[in-house]
Design goal:
There is one protein chain. With about 240 residues, the protein is an alpha+beta fold. The chain contains 8 helices and 6 strands. A 6-stranded antiparallel beta sheet has the order 3-2-1-6-5-4, sandwiched between helices. Helix 2 runs antiparallel to helix 8.
């Protein structure tokens, strides 16, 4: 099935499939969430779920990855927010296990300038209306949006051509875009009541309108609902 062809009964059936799952951790829920979407829609090349977590709450492996990614930058501290991969599914075997990610396992959001150097992350956080100003003062990024039933929305009409204000491709991996014929990329984000953020992103080889993408925005609220208790109990990552 294509995303643009999904009607409301089919969308609600997908939601019900996600709601009935009982995860053991937020990571478990993220993996099920991403694999459910990939299984339902043939046009999804890659689906990923992230959380923005303080560096000090990451497992040792993820902390090491984050340090290496920023070359032990001194701006990386205990409270630095990190875009942390918790679920991934896609067409390549290595995309179905988050530990296999060689670039997106744990991305520190050091400050506004650092975020701005990565076009896709900059647009993602801007679209989700995440306030990055506190990063420059050593505080976590904040949002007054996306609580309760509110969802932030991320949308790139066509990864093959979309550029930012600095004339950079929003989806910078041109080899990935070309090889897998990636076109519309969309996602959604929602906050837990303690301010932590959950984000889902879908890379597709369809060109879909923003209106079609928005049909799926509330799924992040579904994800948040089934993981709130686990998040409060700090059962974020699956046991080793």
């Amino acid at each position: 099935m294509l995303l643009r062809d999904a009607d409301w009964p089919q969308i609600n059936a997908l939601r019900a499939e996600i709601e009935k799952y009982t995860p053991a951790s937020v990571e478990d829920a993220g993996q099920h969430f991403s694999s459910t979407f990939v299984g339902a829609f043939s046009s999804i090349v890659l689906a990923r779920v992230f959380m923005v977590l303080p560096f000090e709450e990451l497992p040792a492996r993820e902390q090491s990855f984050a340090r290496m990614l920023v070359s032990d930058d001194t701006r990386l501290g205990k409270r630095t927010p990190v875009l942390s991969l918790i679920g991934t599914s896609g067409r390549e075997p290595s995309w179905n296990r988050r530990q296999s990610s060689n670039g997106h396992l744990a991305i520190p959001l050091l400050d506004k300038a650092f975020v701005g150097e990565t076009p896709m992350i900059a647009k993602l956080l801007a679209d989700l209306q995440l306030d990055l100003a506190p990063l420059d003062d050593g505080f976590a990024a904040t949002t007054s949006k996306m609580l309760g039933s509110e969802s932030g929305k991320f949308y790139v009409a066509d990864a093959a051509t979309a550029k930012d204000a600095r004339d950079r491709f929003v989806i910078p991996s041109r080899a990935f875009v070309s090889k897998y014929d990636v076109h519309t990329v969309f996602g959604m984000g929602g906050s837990y009541y303690d301010g932590k953020l959950a984000v889902a992103i879908f890379f597709t080889n369809e060109i879909i309108t923003r209106l079609v993408a928005d049909r799926f925005a509330s799924f992040i609220s579904t994800f948040r609902t089934i993981t709130t208790r686990l998040q409060q109990q700090k059962k974020i990552f699956a046991a080793a």
